[in-house]
Specification:
With 123 residues, this protein is of the alpha+beta class. The chain has one domain: VSR Endonuclease (Endonuclease, Chain A, 3-Layer(aba) Sandwich), CATH 3.40.960.10. Helix content is 33%, strand content 32%. The chain has a four-stranded mixed β-sheet. A two-stranded antiparallel sheet has the order 1-2. Strand 4 and strand 5 form a beta hairpin. Helix 1 crosses helix 4.
Length: 123
């Protein structure tokens, strides 16, 4: 168990790790899109079975995609992205945290367009 306390943000009985996630959740909600925030997935990795937690798992027009909020102090996890792609979730889109705060509706529309067209960040 970690001794580090993370701040938890609550919205509509859901939990988030940052304000940017809440902004994106509100924008997704306005589009009536099915989404799962911070849901843990159990995947087979080269090191064995492990838990992975994407920021948002989104279902739109028959397709699954992951929307990740990118903070300047974090790195993209390309290994994890490849694992999700190997399980059929190949649309993984990273958005800048500042943009999430400033224009969450635009980011959500952009992501849903990418998902519906079947194009995205592929590893």
């Amino acid at each position: 168990m970690s001794s580090t306390k993370e701040r938890i943000y609550h919205w509509n009985d859901l939990r988030f790790r940052c304000e940017e996630e809440v902004k994106i959740a509100e924008a997704l909600d306005r589009t009536n899109t099915l989404f799962f925030p911070n849901s843990k997935a159990r995947l087979t990795t080269p090191a064995g079975r492990q838990n992975q937690e994407p920021d948002f798992l989104i279902f739109h027009q028959g397709k699954w995609g992951i929307l990740e909020i990118w903070h300047p102090d974090t790195q993209k996890d390309e290994t994890r992205d490849r694992l999700f792609a190997s399980h059929g979730i190949s649309i993984i889109h990273y958005c800048d945290a500042n943009r999430c705060t400033e224009e969450p509706d635009h980011i959500v529309r952009e992501f849903l367009d990418i998902l519906s067209q079947g194009e995205g960040d592929r590893i």
